Amino acid sequence: MRFKKWVKIAFFSLCMLSIIAMTEKRRSEKVCQHVLIHVDDRYENYFIDERDVQLLMTNAGADNVIGKKYLELDLKALENRIEMNKYVHKAEVYRDVKGNLLVHTIQNRPVARILRSDAPDAYISDEGEILPVSDKYTARVMLISGSYTGKLLKQKIKESEEGQQIFELIDFINKDKFWKAQIAQMEIASNGNIMLYPQVGKQLIEFGKAEKISEKFNKLAVFYEQVLPRKGWNYYNKVNLKYQDQIVCD
Known about the structure:
Blueprint: H1 2-29, E1 34-40, H2 50-57, H3 75-83, E2 88-95, E3 100-107, E4 110-114, E5 122-125, E6 130-132, E7 142-145, H4 149-154, H5 161-175, H6 177-182, E8 183-188, E9 194-198, E10 204-208, H7 213-231, E11 238-240, E12 248-249
Parallel strand pairs: 1-3, 4-7, 7-8, 10-11
Antiparallel strand pairs: 2-3, 4-5, 5-6, 8-9, 9-10, 11-12
C-alpha cells in the first residue's frame, strides 16, 4: 500500500512538471505585444520619463522589443540597460499573461546639490552616489559649496571617513522636518569645517567638523527656542556650535 501511495505521488509530480514545462514553453513562444512603462516618482523627482526608459531599453530604438518572441528577449539584459542611466536606482522588467512587457523603474533620489565654480554641479543621492545635474529637472535640495566639494566629486562620498560623516550630517538634516526646512546651504572648508546657512534669520551657524551631530543640533535647538525669542531673530550674526557644552553667539 505504501509503495502504491509513493507511485501515485510520483506520477502526480511528473504530471505537474509536464504541465509547468508546457505552460512555460507556450509563454516563451508568445510575442511581446505592448510595453507598459511605469516610472516611480514617489519623491517627486522627474529626471526621466517613460520615453527615456523606452530609449534606454531599446538602445535608442535600434533593438525594438515589440513583435519579438519572449524566447528571444533577455529581460535581465534589458534591466541592465536601463540601470546604466545615472538617474535610475533600480529597474524591473517582466511579462504578464497577456503578452505585455511590464517595466517598473525607480529613480535615484538626490538629497543635496554640490555647487562648483570650476566644474559642473552634481547631486548626492540618498545612497551616497554622485549624480549629474539634468537639463530636464532641478531638484529642490540643500546646497553644498566650499573648497572641500572637489573631494566629494572624485569618489563615492561614503568611501572615506570624513565623507561618511558629511553624508550622515546631510542625512540627519533631511530626515528632520524642521532642519530640512531651515538649513538651506552647507559650506565645507578644505579642512572639513562646516558653516550652515539658514532659511530664516541672518545667523551663520559654525558647525565645525561633521561630528557629534545630534549633540550640536540639540544646542542649536536651544538657541532657536530659548535665546532668539528673547533677543530677536536678527540680533546675532553668528552662532558657534563647535565647543563642548557651549553655544557661543556673536
